[in-house]
Amino acid sequence: MEHIWAPWRLDYVVAEKPDNCILCEKRDAPDDDIANYVLYRGSHSYVLLNTFPYNSGHVMVVPHRHLDDLTGLNAEEAGELMLIAQWCVQALQEALGAEGINLGMNIGQPAGAGIEDHIHLHIVPRWSGDTNYMTTVANTRVVPQSLEESAEQLRPLIQRIAENSQ
Ligand SMILES: [Zn+2]
Fold first, then answer.
1. Quick one: how far is CA 44 from the chain centroid?
2. Does 80 map to a domain?
3. How far, in Å, is the centroid of ligand 1 from the Cα of 23?
4. pLDDT digit string, tens, across residues 16-51
5. Does some domain include residue 115?
6. What is the number of domains present in the chain?
7. 3-class SS at 109?
């Protein structure tokens, strides 16, 4: 790749050292839930769509507490996290007809964590042959359903599943 000499970017590069956490920001901005693709808010965790999804309907369950280690969650927080994950799985099966689902956390930089300081559980719906359209083209993953569509489908469903299970 060709490098472009762009000295004006230095201001941007030097200035842009955000020590703010994007997951804490979204947690603290309930009025922006639509814009932030937040789908559900629990007592100890919330759910949002991944804006750089591996597949349509890729959601994340995020503990409210800013923690970099799974072992830091207390029993109540850990329990609700998994309960909310179950609701997400059910919603992805019902709304998107997910044939398989991957759940996982990337804890620490060597494990591939994108946001190292605030743990989050990835839930990725899978379909037979979906790797065919998950090909990386010019660093842009091709995802057939828009984030807006996914959010509109999943938000009411997760709410309903949550209400029915309580
Ligand atoms: Zn955070």
1. 16
2. yes
3. 5
4. 546 789 999 999 999 999 999 999 999 999 999 998
5. yes
6. 1
7. helix
Phi, psi at residue 48, to the nearest 5°? -145, 160
Q: How many angstroms separate the alpha carbon of residue 15 from the centre of ligand 1?
A: 20
> Within 13 Å, how many C-alpha atoms sit on residue 49's CB side?
27
The SS3 assignment for 138 reads coil
Alpha-carbon gap, residue 105 to 83, rounded angstroms: 16
- CA nearest neighbour of 155 among 61, 91, 82, 85: 91
pLDDT tens by residue, 118-141: 999 999 999 887 765 444 444 445
In 3D space, the residue among 93, 129, 119 whose CA is nearest the CA of residue 27 turns out to be 119
State in Å: Cα 48 to ligand 1 middle: 14
Nearest CA to 46 among 85, 20, 91?
85
Q: Are 61 and 123 in contact (CB under 8 A)?
A: yes
Q: Locate 41 and state its tokens.
A: 């808010």
Q: How far apart are the CA of 111 and the centre of ligand 1, in A?
A: 18
Answer whether 0.85 is exceeded by the pTM: no
CATH (domain of 123): 3.30.428.10
User: How many angstroms is it from 97 CA to the middle of ligand 1?
Assistant: 32
- Domain span at residue 136? 21-164
